[in-house]
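Hey, can you fold this one?
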Amino acid sequence: MHYDIFGDIHGHADQMEILLQRCGYKRKQGVYQHPQGRKAIFVGDLIDRGPRIRETLHLVRDMQQAGHAEVVMGNHEFNAISFHTPHTEQGGFFRDHTLAEIEQHIETLRQFKHYMQEWEEFLAWFKELPLYLDKGHFRVVHACWDPAHIQWLQNNYRGTDKAFLKAANDKQDTSGVHRVVEETLKGKEYSLPEGYSFLDKEGVPRRECRIKWWLPASPNLTLGEYLFNCPEGLENEPAGTGHDAFHYADKVPVFFGHYWLKDKKPVQQSPYAICLDYSVAKNGMLVVCSVDVVAGNMNSKFSWQQ
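Sure. Predicted structure:
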């Protein structure tokens, strides 16, 4: 088993092509493929923000449809489906069209302004994407691998139809679909104690912090280590094992994206967790991890391009 797993691309096709070529892929009849049969895997968030979104989608979909790549859905693909699908019961769309949602999606809208038929075809393709991959020796998901959520998806997910969109976008949903999709594609959150909040990148006060679910449970783990954007004054508090705490405990490595890491070069977050999102859309780098599984042993190597 030989794979090259790419982090969030966000329309940065130039960096993606450089890394594909560095990993040995060559373009044959317009489609990137590896002469030795390696396969690329993309962790989602192909769209929005970057300068060559349309080109990214063509390159990735062509590889996938020719059997040279696999793709999991990211939250930006799910958001795009919801943004463009009319909500026939309530009116409007499954995702709001307020300024915040439009600003997040505006580069994709601009770049497909004169290619609306193509865009409809890509939206249909997004709806067919899986929300996770389990390769036995390793796993791939966009934001968080919760075994209970993965089991639910295995038993129930059959594609992103309107019934699924309705439940997945309903914060009051009691069936559990919203939570499964939200946490699988966007990560788990920790509710801050009364009186604490932080400002997100848009300056909006938030009372829930994303968690570093890949850190093993430990009585010495602090909230400063466990939470993204931990407010001042809580850094040394114990993370604990309350209802908002979650720690990945399986001994199978998980590759994922989503978290906009800012390290100068890729690092492995834990023995069983490898984040591949290093903020390429915010002057960071696009990262690929080459994985070789031989006789049950997994070897991996990072490459990156700024």
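DSSP finds nine helices and 16 strands in the chain. Let me know if you want another pass with a different chain boundary.
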